[in-house]
Write a structure and sequence with these properties.
The complex is a heterodimer of chains A (335) and B (382). Chain A is of the alpha/beta class. Chain A contains 11 helices and 14 strands. Chain A is globular and about 60 Å long. In chain B, strand 7, helix 9 and strand 8 form a beta-alpha-beta unit. Chain B has one domain: Rossmann fold, CATH 3.40.50.970.
């Protein structure tokens, strides 16, 4: 590869206001500048810059070999990424939409996830997954498939909610020696913006964040649901704590239990469907470890167990909305 | 093509072939090169080719015995009759080349440097097995020897090998990745993805297809309408047909494919026609294969055939050949005792290693097997 190693210019303490989307690009660009073994692979990511423009301008800076336009073949993207990773590269794969991981699922769950356990060979790849609905994407461009990955030991799974975490978690994912599924919510791409540290910035995998302090109720969320929870808490004016999980595997069980013990009431919220989802896992954890501290049953606010429909009123009926969040919080607060 | 006439077809193909370099016949794929020139094999290389084939046969026979004794959990899978393919192909690689080896290819593991005790221990789920009991039977690859172990989903490793080759190409290294799959695998979508990806990027990868007549019980005519060796051309690289029961023919086709890959000319698909002489696994009585077909293929046994060639064409004495085979058998018996002496893994370690704490680097292996490969590795290091 022709690129030369280059240390990022880290201006201590300086930040820039970026959108969530820009922060993803920034994290990827910083890592590609820092580490010549990092390369991007995916459909239409080169000259076109990706369906959502995350890699806009990358091919000009890093060349077509490191910003590889692949054939339309998701198993090929992930399978060859595993081979390249085993041989010392750090591939970052882009699924054009998270939904399309189903076409690359075999390589992800059977080859990548199990490689270290079976053979002692690390497979440091990142799979970027533009996920989530709310824009009439329909049943094949709107899903939140994180629970699939959580049933596949060997995969780490992260889902940033803020611009700073979008950068920091991506950088950490690239540096991690394991395959990491990185869920980037499409609804947050341009909706969320915030101060993002410039240069080298990493957020440790497996650490939750208290997005809002509160005493009466904990909303444990990740991704888009964090913003629903924050908006609901503001609108209700109540002392609601919002825990942003950030990492789903490894899960920050201490942070979950600490918040549950502090408030005694827990709502677990996510945009993914309900059955056997992250909410079920978090609720089971709290039931097993913090039962005595609870003042109310643990509740979940999630998408209905349904494909995500196309038509706006149907989609809104399936995905959790702000009013649903306010109602769920109010019910628990009144319990 | 009939499922049983592989070697016959390939013999005919070789007779038709006039150009040793590619002998191309558009629409049918290139044919195996004829031996119009001396192969770069020393006397010691030839002894080793026999040694590794005999080692594979002896180790698998020992494995079947252990299975019948109840010492192997699960089932048992072997490559009886296919020894020439894994040995002949793996023999061309240097230490810095990489392999994803499949379940009929024990010979390739031995060529890379795995010893039969570690193979048998792996089958028995012992600590000394290559995976330490994490995975069973042939699902292993010794990372220290430059190998990544297979998964059951076929042909997933074709993409992993293509990815390794992509890394070589991106870094401008003169290295080769080689992998195997059966003809049944060519019906799967990932086969297409791998061939297409390797073709688009002209990757230095050698695909060795073992057409052993049956995917479990399913014959060729229910797997594909167009033979895979012909499909290679549609991906932009040559398909070469060889007699998979002729170890030097496999060697020569693999050597040419590896050199082509090293030269930056891209992938090659080598279809080795052969016959699976045992069932898919030890649980399969192979009742779907007529006895006459089995008997016919038994006459083409690659080990007996090479033994005769060594005596008839390469100046070996019958005693020499016999003593190589006997030595290997004694060695495998010794290895079996070592494997049996290995403890079972500690259940307390069952969840260790789900996640990696650090990156790993594949080793190059020792490559002690051949003068040929030593020269190849010098070239690949250059």
């Amino acid at each position: 590869m022709s690129a030369t190693a280059e240390r990022p210019e880290t201006r201590e303490g300086s930040t820039a206001e970026l959108t969530y989307l820009e922060a993803i690009s920034d994290g990827l660009r910083c890592e590609m500048r820092r580490d010549p073994t990092v390369l991007c692979m995916g459909e239409d990511i080169g000259a076109f810059g990706g369906a959502f423009k995350v890699t806009d301008g990358f091919v000009e800076e890093f060349g077509a070999e490191r910003v590889l336009d692949t054939p339309l073949a998701e198993n090929a993207i992930i399978g060859t990424a595993v081979g390249a990773a085993v041989e010392g590269l750090r591939p970052v794969c882009e699924m054009q939409f998270a939904d399309f991981i189903s076409c690359g699922f075999d390589q992800l769950v059977n080859v990548a996830a199990k490689l270290h356990y079976r053979q002692g060979v690390a497979a440091p790849i990142v799979v970027r997954l533009p996920s989530g609905g709310g824009f009439s994407g329909g049943p094949f461009h709107s899903q939140n498939p994180e629970a699939w990955f959580l049933q596949s030991p060997g995969l780490k799974v992260v889902a940033p909610a803020t611009a700073a975490d979008a950068k920091g978690l991506l950088v950490a994912a690239i540096r991690d020696p394991n395959p990491v599924c990185y869920l980037e919510h499409k609804g947050l791409y341009r909706y969320v913006r915030g101060e993002v540290p410039e240069g080298d910035y990493e957020v440790e995998l497996g650490k939750a964040r208290i997005a809002r302090e509160g005493e009466e109720l904990s909303v444990i969320a990740y991704g888009s649901a964090v913003h629903l929870a924050l908006d609901a808490a503001e609108a209700l004016g109540e002392s609601i704590e919002v825990v942003d999980l950030r990492s789903l595997c490894p899960l920050d069980t201490e942070a979950v239990l600490a918040s549950a013990r502090k408030t005694g009431k827990v709502l677990v919220a996510h945009e993914a469907t309900q059955s056997c989802g992250v909410g079920a896992e978090v609720a089971a954890l709290i039931a097993a470890e913090a039962f005595e501290d609870l003042d109310a049953p643990v509740r979940r606010l999630t998408a209905a167990d349904s494909p995500i429909p196309f038509s706006p009123p149907l989609e809104q009926a399936i995905l959790p909305q702000l009013d649903d969040m306010k109602e769920a919080c109010s019910e628990l607060l009144a319990y | 093509m009939k499922p049983f006439d592989g070697a016959v077809a390939s013999e005919r193909a070789r007779e038709r072939s006039t150009d040793p370099a590619n002998g191309s016949d558009p629409g049918r794929g290139a044919q195996a090169p004829q031996r119009t020139r001396e192969l770069p094999l020393t006397r010691e290389d030839r002894a080793n080719l026999l040694r590794y084939m005999a080692m594979m046969r002896a180790a698998e026979e020992r494995g079947i015995t252990l299975y019948r004794q109840g010492k192997i959990p699960g089932s048992f899978y072997d490559g009886c009759g296919q020894e020439a393919i894994s040995v002949g192909s793996a023999f061309v690689l240097g230490p810095r080349d990489r392999m994803c080896i499949l379940h009929r290819d024990l010979g390739a593991h031995f060529v890379r440097g795995v010893t039969p005790d570690r193979y048998l221990a792996n089958y028995m789920g012992r600590e000394a097995g290559v995976t330490g009991g994490r995975d069973g039977n042939m699902h292993f690859g010794d990372p220290a020897l430059g190998c990544v172990g297979m998964v059951s989903m076929l042909p997933d490793m074709a993409l992993v090998a293509a990815g390794m080759a992509m890394a070589f190409k991106l870094r401008g290294e003169s290295r080769v990745a080689m992998t195997y799959f059966g003809e049944g695998s060519t019906a799967n979508g990932q086969w297409h993805e791998a061939m297409n990806f390797a073709g688009v990027h002209e990757l230095p990868v050698v695909f060795v297809l073992e057409n052993n007549g049956f995917a479990y019980s399913t014959p060729n005519e229910l797997e594909f309408a167009v033979d895979p060796v012909e499909r290679a051309a549609t991906y932009g690289f040559p398909g070469v047909l060889v007699d998979g029961n002729d170890v030097e023919a496999v060697f020569e086709a693999s050597r040419a494919a590896a050199e082509r890959a090293r030269a930056g000319a891209g992938p090659t698909l080598i279809e080795c026609r052969t016959m699976r002489m045992h069932g898919h696994g030890a649980h399969d009585d192979m009742s779907y294969v007529p006895e006459a077909v089995r008997e016919e293929w038994a006459q083409r046994d690659p080990i007996d055939r090479y033994s005769r060639a060594l005596v008839g064409e390469h100046g070996f004495s019958a005693d020499e050949v016999e003593s190589i085979r006997a030595e290997v058998k004694a060695y495998v018996d010794e290895c079996a005792q070592q494997a049996l002496a290995s403890p079972m893994p500690d259940p307390k370690t069952a969840t260790d290693g789900v996640f990696a704490d650090d990156v790993t680097t594949l080793g190059d292996g020792q490559a002690p097997w051949s003068h040929w490969s030593a020269a190849a590795s010098e070239r690949s290091a250059a």
